[in-house]
Amino acid sequence: MENETPDEFLEALKLVLLTNFYYALANNKLHITLPDGVIISKENCKDIAIELGVMNSEPNPNWDDSTLDKVQSLRTMIAPDFDGIATSTEFEDFYWAIRVGENADGKRVGIARKTGMLITRKPPKFEKFPGVANFDVFVCVTGHKGSLVLRSLENPAHDAFEEDRISDPQKRKVAMAKYSRFAQEVRDIIRTYAKLEVNEEELTSDLNDLLSGDSSTEAEGNNRVEFPQRVKITTGIKPIRRTFRLTGTGGNGSRRGRTQRKTRKRNSGGSDFAKVVRNPENLVFIPKAEPGKFEIYFDYRGSLPARLTVFKSGDHGSEPTSFLQGADRKNFAQVTEAERIESNRDRFRITLAIPGYSGAVEATVEEEVVIDNAD
User: Which is it for strands 361-371 and 272-278: parallel, antiparallel or unpaired?
Assistant: First the structure.
């Protein structure tokens, strides 16, 4: 930019670095030293981004369209409505974050691969999203297999994924099949969190007015409009708004697991044992290829060892269920240091199987703490 001052140059440089490399910086994979000696790192990257105004409701008039677009991914990484780690059948682990509804201006997906650099916000297979509210998603594929596929599709400018980057037709077909399955997994996450919640009575009334038909309500929460041409449009059962307890068969998560219950028992020494039952934070269930097998990811900051209890979720509540770990049938899984994920010390992973079951699942974590009595 002509007549740009040194301060303006540094501000523009910071913005370029943050919009492209924020995930790598925030996860301590990258440190950047600026010409003035300032180091951008995990400790200060969020504060610097906020100082630049990326979270302001009104965009900076000096930012071009490309910058404004990338800032949306930056905002999603800084303040997601929901986020988590999922395991893809083809791409292995990937991190996802989403803003939904009024917090998003459109329907866009930004993808980065293992290095943490944002590659594109216009990836293939993510062009149209009927039936969902506005959202903004950021995905970073951290798994080695997925990163290799994305690298093979990445163009020399590092700003798009293109099929013709793979010259061999058979290899291209295999790579795109893997990419398509990954895209569907991301779409499943989007549908979970950006599902439209519509007032059925208003919807059927509007349809009736539009097509001049007669409206009737057949059952509570299940409204139908009938038209002279025998066209029927059914809105279905009203979706349940999830709070902080996960329900779902895979790729789902929760904001925060705040609910907890306590029960006490006293031993002969005069101490109380308090059993604290928590809904784990950022809980994600990923179904594996083997029917009934799941990987469970969750954040947990309580004492170890703890016990993970799994439930089958039904229309009339949840019931504890037994499951298999290896060849052993268990009523709960031990949560120990062995299940902790090294790259994220608050996150744990447990693999289990419920043979013949493919429905919704939930979980709680129970820890036992000792409360010493002064008397």
Answer: antiparallel
Cut 0.70: pTM above it = no
Largest CA distance in the chain: 80
Q: Using CA atoms, how far apart are residues 282 and 240, in angstroms rounded to an integer?
A: 18
Name the nearest CA neighbour of 101 among 242, 195, 231, 1. Answer: 195
Give the containing element (helix H, strand E) for 135: strand 135-141
Query: Apex CA 21: angle with CA 114 and CA 176, to 5°?
Result: 40
Tens digit of pLDDT for each residue in 256-314?
333 344 444 444 454 455 567 777 777 776 767 677 787 888 888 888 888 888 877 64
Phi, psi of 305 (to 5 degrees): -75, 160
Locate the domains of the chain by residue range. Answer: 1-65, 80-197, 200-234, 260-371
Assigned token pair, 89: 């059948």
pLDDT tens digits, residue range 123-146? Answer: 999 998 888 889 999 999 999 999
Contacts of 162 (CB under 8 A, 6+ apart): 153, 154, 155
CA–CA dist 330, 322 (Å, integer): 5
Q: How many CB atoms lie within 10 A of CB 146?
A: 23
- Tokens representing 306 are 């703890």
The first and second tokens of residue 152, run together, are 């093979």
CA-CA distance, 197 to 215, in Å (whole number)? 20
3 state SS of 243: coil
Tokens describing residue 41: 């790192």
The answer to whether the CB of 283 falls within 8 A of the CB of 296 is yes
CATH number for the domain whose boundaries are 260-371: 2.60.40
| Sign of torsion over alpha carbons 167, 170, 175, 176 | positive
Q: Which residues touch 182 (CB under 8 Å, ≥6 apart)?
A: 88, 90, 91, 94, 141, 146, 149
Length of the chain: 375
On the CB side of 274, how many CA atoms lie within 13 Å of its CA? Answer: 12
User: Which 8-state DSSP code applies to residue 132?
Assistant: B
* DSSP annotation string for 278-339: EPPEEEEEEE-SSTTEEEEEEE--S-SSEEEEEEEEETTEEEE--EEETTEEESSEEE-GGG
